[in-house]
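Table S2 (continued). Query chain:
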Amino acid sequence: MIDDQPIPQHPRPVLTLTAIFIAAAGLLIALVLAAFAFIVGDFGKDVRDLEESSDASPLVETSDSTPHDILIKTGFITGSLSFPSEEIPADMKVCAVNQQSQTETCTTDHIETEEEPYGLSYRIEVPEGTYTVYAQLPDQAQKAFYSEFVTCGLSVDCPSHEPIPVEVAAGETVNNVDPHDWYVIDP
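Corresponding output:
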């Protein structure tokens, strides 16, 4: 006699596509977390090494920095201001141009001082490197460079108007970089 009841079957373990996907996703997440931990751990080590060093140079952060470039050592350039007139225009800017990257760092801050011949000076903080320095009025092409003409005494006997490269080291200030050569249109 045939019974109408189905014959019981024992389920066999079968790897389904869903189980494979879940295992692969778990492995991928574990790899991403391990990579992130390595990167963060490596960066943290660099910062700790820097904090433990005895170098007390100022540090700055730039907006387009990568994690290993965030800490840039800087120095300063200072000098007096001048203008071939009775007074120095309040909107005069002074810029330092990095000779490698051509990046300009400018200031319009004029510092009043009795130590300078014209009563005003400037101070620019820049990453270490080599710079040319000039003063300029807004919307004018003429630039007054710190040049050989300045170091020669601004005399008609001084033939060269060649800008002088200024080397800035981390933590140091380069003084007497006076952009006074208003007597040439373009070096």
